[in-house]
């Protein structure tokens, strides 16, 4: 009798544990859906609202561009505020590099607080021809300047 009671208690404890775990997973799913909805709402507000918001809070940040040539690799580092669309900025950088005969070797971005850090590494598509680094630098600065002008606007 004692053995069957112990087995019953273990099964009951396991069942309760599974119920709690299921409940927790469902709560997490609801939280994810809520966060997705909030993200969509923020994205629908548009960049203009975000810029105005940052101006009002004093959180205005101009883009910072750093470019280094390390051997045959061109390293591009860009820091922007939250008001810049990450995927759009990376896409523009990729397109610019491709137009200039460079190939993206590695790229990443991460957002920390109100800042987004981009790192892009590229090399010449054809090593014999190479790329005109000074022209890429000039075009990247032109790409970043409209963002700065929009912030200061």
UniProtKB/TrEMBL annotation:
State the UniProt keywords alphabetically.
Coiled coil
Coiled-coil-forming residues are 18-45
Q: Specify the superkingdom.
A: Eukaryota
**GO biological processes:** regulation of DNA-templated transcription
Query: How is this protein named in the record?
Result: Uncharacterized protein
Question: Which organism is this entry from?
Answer: Ilex paraguariensis
Species classification: Eukaryota, Viridiplantae, Streptophyta, Embryophyta, Tracheophyta
């Amino acid at each position: 009798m004692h053995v069957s009671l112990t087995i019953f208690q273990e099964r009951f404890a396991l069942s309760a544990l599974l119920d709690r775990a299921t409940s927790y997973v469902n709560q997490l799913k609801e939280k994810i859906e809520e966060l997705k909805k909030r993200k969509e709402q923020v994205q629908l507000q548009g960049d203009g609202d975000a810029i105005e918001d940052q101006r009002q809070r004093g959180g205005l940040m101009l883009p910072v561009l750093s470019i280094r040539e390390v051997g045959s690799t061109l390293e591009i580092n860009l820091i922007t505020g939250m008001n810049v669309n990450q995927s759009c900025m990376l896409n523009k950088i990729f397109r610019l590099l491709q137009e200039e005969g460079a190939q993206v070797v590695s790229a990443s971005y991460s957002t920390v607080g109100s800042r987004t850090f981009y790192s892009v590494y590229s090399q010449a598509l054809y090593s014999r021809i190479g790329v005109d680094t000074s022209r890429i630098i000039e075009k990247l600065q032109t790409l970043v300047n409209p963002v700065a002008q929009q912030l200061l606007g």
